[in-house]
Amino acid sequence: MTTGERKPYKRVGEEVRRxxxxxxxxELIAEGGIAxxxxxxxxxxxxxxxGLIRHYFRSKEDLTRAAYQSLMERMTLANAIVLDTASDEPxxxxxxxxxxxxxxxxxxxxxxxxxxxxxxxxxxDPELREVHRVTYLGYRDVLQGLIAALPREAxxxxxxxxxxxxxxxxxxxxxxxxxxxxxxxKDELAEIGxxxxxxxLGVNLLTEIEIIS
Amino acid sequence: MTTGERKPYKRVGEEVRRxxxxxxxxELIAEGGIAxxxxxxxxxxxxxxxGLIRHYFRSKEDLTRAAYQSLMERMTLANAIVLDTASDEPxxxxxxxxxxxxxxxxxxxxxxxxxxxxxxxxxxDPELREVHRVTYLGYRDVLQGLIAALPREAxxxxxxxxxxxxxxxxxxxxxxxxxxxxxxxKDELAEIGxxxxxxxLGVNLLTEIEIIS
DNA sequence: GTTGCAATTGTGCAAGCGTATAATTGGATG
DNA sequence: CATCCAATTATACGCTTGCACAATTGCAAC
Lengths: 213, 213
Description:
Two copies of one chain form a homodimer. The first copy, chain A, is mainly alpha-helical. Helix content of chain A is 73%, strand content 0%. The mean pLDDT of chain A is 94. At the A-B interface, helix 1, helix 6, helix 7, helix 8 and helix 9 of A face helix 1, helix 6, helix 7, helix 8 and helix 9 of B.
């Protein structure tokens, strides 16, 4: 009571501050949805005071959008890295891409929490919806490129259908692994995913699995 | 102002009242997540006053749980009906089951909204988690039964892996159809799903499609 | 019909929300 | 080392939330 002291602070670059807030918001959303990411909770987790958030973001919705965009960019980047570090052999590249999506850290209850937390806002907000569309179709295009590189013959229509199907397999298995991790043994889903994608395309990807793990 | 009249009302059976509230809650959750399903909003949509909700449910969490259970029961029932009205031929039954999951009314932004709205609570609340587990595994078991009925030879381990894979295909395509309906032409995803499930199992389900549509 | 009681409505409260805005202070600049 | 301004903290407001509890009323039983 005697000491009505103000909180001491240090000035930090704008970029760093914004990313600190975004990171805090994403953690909270992953845990409890957008509702849990209150301005006060974000500020506490980021080690700042609520007022500062308003200084960097016009509104909470503004912060939410920035967080979603940041998340999508990070995901796209992670996929690019997987492919950069993969070999040149088409089958091996596809196998690495599929397996990476079905193992930690991509498979993780927190990442599903983020997905679920955002998807409602994505449906309602046209701006977020566009980000979602571009990211989703971009991911599918990369997958389609990997499929097209396989030593087979396939026309465009078939490639599109195959990419959609394989993307569905990946998404579905990812979802189930995140939602009920204890229902599967380690690497079971990655193996099932490789077999299923292989069955869709008429190739055997399981021979590539040793390379990955 | 002069007339400070009370809202007139009629007494209704407990069962009906509870289901009215649950239906209202589900509609709101589908649109805007659990956060949008406030006690006041639920009461308004159900045509009652907020106080009555407390009379039938100890807390909002209690209502949320009841709503989730009701939703899962309805889904399970809908699947049973699809199979009841299908033919006896194993391939046709499987095809009907897959196609039903990839068309309206199962494919619908609102149903994905419900899913996303609940999944966070499901992860956090052990009671809801158990409901989820039982429902999910039950669905997969039905699917595995349909696969086992096909005229093929398959051991238990292979059946399990195939059921997981096919369930993944269905869930993943369902998700994509709900999230970006405009990215696909009508029935495209049902066709892709049938082809993909068929490829996983080594059978051709597309010959069954005329029966369904 | 009158009575009785559970079903229903109405009111109020403490807590938390997003946001606006005033008051401070860190640190670069000269 | 004094100046100055943006970065940061602090305070306050109006609104909504879940919940508790008191006041009414429909309706079945007698």
